[in-house]
Amino acid sequence: MSTVTDYFDPAKSFEAFTKYTPTEMFKSPQFKAMGDFYTKAREVGVDAMNRNVDLTMDWFKDAQKDAEALMKPEGEPAEYMKKAGEMAVASMNALPSRMFAYAEVAKKAQFDMLDTVLGAAQPALDAATPAPAKKTRKANGAA
User: What is the pLDDT of residues 32-68, one digit of tens each?
Assistant: First the structure.
């Protein structure tokens, strides 16, 4: 091994990080809240990606069906051109609904991410706020 691979080895880097970092930090509620947030954010991203892949695969399957129909031999070039024109028109007519489906995936991912952020904010704030400040905040809210 060279010094470069030793230096950039993630396992060794993390081991060195934890060696000089108090392990109590990893048990803190703030660290757990941060980990939960990143887990939920990753789930939102992976879900959106999977839905986009499904939409794209459906689009490819439809294009494959069109291509197969277009590859069938025709007797006259005019018939072939007519079929190609009909497929182009159908494809252009389907385009807005396909784009709308992608927009719906993006909108859902944005709302899910917003819910994740808002859901993580309060527990993290509660965990980070000292007890006297919590009592003051509750007393001010009750007044």
Answer: 777 888 888 899 999 999 999 999 999 999 889 888 8
Pairwise CA distance, residues 51 & 98, whole Å: 13
Taking the whole predicted model, whether its pTM rises above 0.90 is answered as no
* Distance, CA of 46 to CA of 116 (rounded, Å): 14
Question: Which residues of the chain carry a pLDDT beneath 70?
Answer: 1-10, 20-26, 123-124, 127-128, 130-143
Q: Cβ distance 108 to 48 under 8 Å?
A: yes
